[in-house]
From TrEMBL:
Protein's recorded name: Fungal-type protein kinase domain-containing protein
Domain of life: Eukaryota
UniProt-recorded Gene Ontology molecular function terms: protein kinase activity
Region (Disordered): 1-20
Domain Fungal-type protein kinase, first and last residues per copy: 148-661
Entry-linked InterPro entries: Kinase-like_dom_sf, Pkinase_fungal, Tyr_kinase_AS
Length: 765
């Protein structure tokens, strides 16, 4: 560590008893959720009527009779025996929605006895199951297709029910309250992943009172409590359900993304035909209920009419990587193909696949109007609003790195910022023109008095904007766009703009699979070497430092892609910035209408202005947002606040990624076996100590029957230890050349085992 003596640091001894490993991992998971939720649950200050008008926009009038006064008169549950009263609760809920049209009516389901798995089958083992109390099915559906084995995609909303008002988790900081909020958040996370939602709702019932919690990827907003025994409040809950199933956009319910839908039978048949035609492996094993049709929009150029930009249709059919955190980028990386069924013979895009050294030609024109599908990578993520869009970094890579030298890096083909697009549509409808990009002020955005007449521009206004009774009003609609979050600004004030997120979706050319799904350990090492070479290219030729090296951000290129120069590559440039000491032409970073500063300066100013930044837990969360994936961060970045993120920090992250994969997906001699990762990779104050303990441990980690990989790991660990414990002023040996040499030497060894594929990691019960 720069500026530190080589004297060993004193750390608490690690407990290596195998029986403690599962408990440690479980404790880590709970602690992660606690840190994710802290200071991200906002209690709404306004009336419940305003809460519904703001967060459940709808153009449909709720004006019907029906006696709902006694809907929950018989709901008198006993603590610990709520299940026995669920029938009464369900009857009351049915009473509220009985006047709804059949195709919009919600049916309610007893989900408490079902162990619900994570929505993506491939990643089920990474997450615990959950059993929400009750669930609302999709509008118009009276029973799940398989009532004995329901999935999250069968549900539109979750309902948690407890016996008394004292169970309300939003009035206490007790452990029990934290656990209940945790349950609500897990359900919200699962619903959002299952449907690709922009927002979701969870109804909490606590004796005679209830609350509505609205979640997005920035925070949760919770209504004031209302009574289940007062007619006025029951009508409010009825209006909530009515508006929920009558969204402004042509989607099933409020929160659905209008640019995404599930596949129907025709889509599935066409997709299978396309994949079989190119001999894609495992077509029959694809879980197509998880697949989605998606629209990909390119970013508009300054002055371009937003309404003339046509989306490019894709089918995203297999998730390669899923970020399971709720309040996060929520990155999902998909395999997908262009849906060219609507392409006519005279379509401008019916041309052959091209690759040119020109960012303007990096469009996915490879399969529109052609016969065979080409597999692409599609990324869906929610960027922090204070960071530049990831596509800007890809455009720089496209411009400065020639195809013949492009190793370990993908090429951007299209797509952009859906959130920014929707906000600009609102601005055009409200003010006549979108705000010029160099004048954007997120702190006051969409807050000015309306100057355009919406009645004269109804065709150009986004559907989400035109809610009941507001098309001719001078007031700005109380709600806001949903492809970009406004929940912090609507609840805590406009000065919280920096905590908002914007929805990105874009396409890159290179396809791959997770490095935890390697077919052989040699393939894993080859992929990591090319990823390191790609990192070097981006840094030295473009001046872009990745800053988020993690297991999810390195992919293996399948051998079927014979045209690729790479065996692996890095992606996910969300947290990239300019590399220290390297010239670059990076775009100006958003400073919210202030003088231009470096991005890290902006982030540090925002965090310094945050009243909660002194809270240790919140600081950990901010560190994750600032510098990348926590488990794989360099020790110095974890230990010393304000340290500039440099190249050697990312090289250290490559080591922690390699160690993670070894411990979780290979046979080795660590006494904790697969649970060893919980003894090294931790959150909070233990994160630094346990990594240092590991580096000081001189015993050799032996990968079973794998001499080359054992040697590579041992040498890489030694190189890192010398870097971390070097004297002040001593040269840092952790360089591209040194790391690349270790990998090349290992790959030149002829003793690599054959067919030693990754072993699945199983989450402890």
């Amino acid at each position: 560590m720069t500026g530190q003596p080589s004297t060993p640091r004193r750390t608490s001894g690690a407990n290596n008893h195998p029986t403690c490993a599962a408990d440690k991992l479980q404790s880590t998971l709970i602690e992660n959720w606690k840190k994710e939720l802290i200071d991200r649950i906002n209690l709404y200050d306004g009336s419940n009527d305003k809460f519904i008008r703001t967060f459940v926009p709808s153009r449909a009038r709720c004006n019907f009779g029906g006696n709902v006064k006694n809907a929950f008169a018989d709901w008198t549950p006993q603590a610990g025996q709520e299940v026995e009263s669920y029938d009464v609760l369900l009857k009351g809920l049915d009473t509220l929605v009985k006047p709804f049209p059949e195709d919009k009516r919600l049916s309610f389901f007893r989900s408490h006895s079902h162990e619900m798995k994570f929505p993506f089958t491939q990643f089920e083992s990474n997450h615990h199951t959950s059993n929400p109390n009750l669930a609302a099915l999709l509008p118009g559906v009276v029973s799940p297709p398989d009532a004995a084995n329901p999935t999250w995609s069968d549900f539109s909303m979750i309902i948690e029910a407890k016996a008394t008002a004292a169970d309300d988790p939003f009035t206490s900081n007790s452990l029990e309250s934290c656990e209940e909020v945790f349950r609500l958040a897990v359900s919200a996370r699962s619903l959002m992943h299952a449907h690709g939602l922009l927002t979701t709702f969870v109804l909490g019932i606590y004796g005679d009172i209830a609350r509505i919690a609205r979640f997005d990827h920035a925070c949760a907003v919770v209504s004031k409590p209302f009574s289940l025994k007062k007619l006025e409040d029951l009508k409010l809950l009825q209006r909530f359900f009515w508006r929920f199933v009558h969204p402004c956009d042509s989607v099933p319910f409020v929160g659905c993304d209008p640019t995404v839908r599930k596949l129907d039978s025709d889509d599935e048949e066409w997709l299978k035909d396309q994949l079989n035609a190119i001999n894609f492996p495992g077509v029959d094993e694809l879980v197509l209920r998880e697949a989605r049709c998606a629209e990909v929009y390119d970013d508009d150029n300054e002055g371009e009419d937003l309404n003339t930009i046509e989306p490019k249709p894709y089918i995203m059919f297999k998730a390669l990587d899923v970020n399971g955190r709720l309040f996060s980028r929520a990155t999902t990386v998909w395999l997908g193909i262009r849906d060219n069924r609507g392409a006519g013979e005279n379509d401008d895009e019916t041309v052959a696949d091209v690759t040119m050294h020109d960012s303007s030609s990096s469009e996915d024109v490879s399969q529109a109007g052609t016969e065979k599908a080409i597999i692409r990578i599609i990324k869906d993520a929610w960027r922090p609003l204070l960071r530049p869009p990831e596509t800007e970094f890809y455009n720089l890579l496209n411009t400065k790195i020639f195809p013949e030298e492009r190793i370990g890096l993908p090429t951007l083909l299209g797509g952009g910022d859906l959130g920014e697009r929707e906000v600009r549509q609102w601005e055009k409808a409200l003010y006549g023109e979108p705000t010029p990009s160099d004048e954007i002020d997120h702190q006051t955005r969409l807050s000015a008095t309306k100057t355009a007449d919406l009645d004269d521009s109804l065709e150009s206004a986004p559907p989400s904007m035109l809610v009941l009774g507001q098309s001719t009003s001078n007031a700005i609609p109380s709600h806001r766009p949903t492809q970009q979050t406004f929940s912090w600004r609507l609840t805590r004030g406009n000065d919280q703009w920096h905590r908002e997120r914007s929805h990105m979706r874009f396409v890159v050319d290179t396809i791959g699979r997770s490095i935890t799904d390697f077919h052989s350990t040699r393939e894993l090492v080859e992929a990591m070497l090319d990823a390191i070479r790609g990192h070097k290219l981006a840094t030295e030729k473009v001046g872009v430092l990745h800053r988020d090296i993690s297991v999810g951000n390195i992919l293996i290129v399948d051998k079927a892609d014979e045209g690729s120069l790479s065996r692996g590559f890095i992606h996910d440039f969300d947290y990239s910035s300019c590399a220290v000491g390297v010239d670059n032409d990076l775009p100006t970073n958003p400073s919210n209408n202030s003088t231009k500063r470096s991005l890290d300066d902006v982030v540090q100013l925002v965090l310094a202005a945050n009243d909660d930044a002194d809270n240790a837990d919140n600081a950990d969360a901010n560190l994750k947002e600032r510098a990348g994936t926590y488990y794989f961060l360099a020790i110095q970045l974890l230990e010393e606040a304000g340290v500039p993120h440099e190249i050697f920090h990312d090289l250290e992250s490559f080591y922690w990624v390699l160690l993670w994969v070894i411990l979780r997906h290979m046979e080795h001699n660590h006494r904790l076996r697969q649970m060893a990762s919980a003894d090294i990779f931790r959150d909070g104050s233990a994160a630094v100590a346990l990594k240092l303990v590991w580096l000081r441990n001189e015993s050799c980690l032996v990968i079973t029957d794998n001499v080359p990989l054992t040697a590579l790991h041992d040498k890489f660990k030694g190189l890192l230890a010398r870097s971390v414990y070097r004297h002040k002023g001593e040269e840092n040996e952790l360089t591209y050349e040194a790391v690349e040499k270790l990998f090349v030497e290992a790959l030149n060894d002829n003793r690599w085992p054959k067919d030693d594929a990754a072993k699945p990691f199983v989450m402890p019960n």
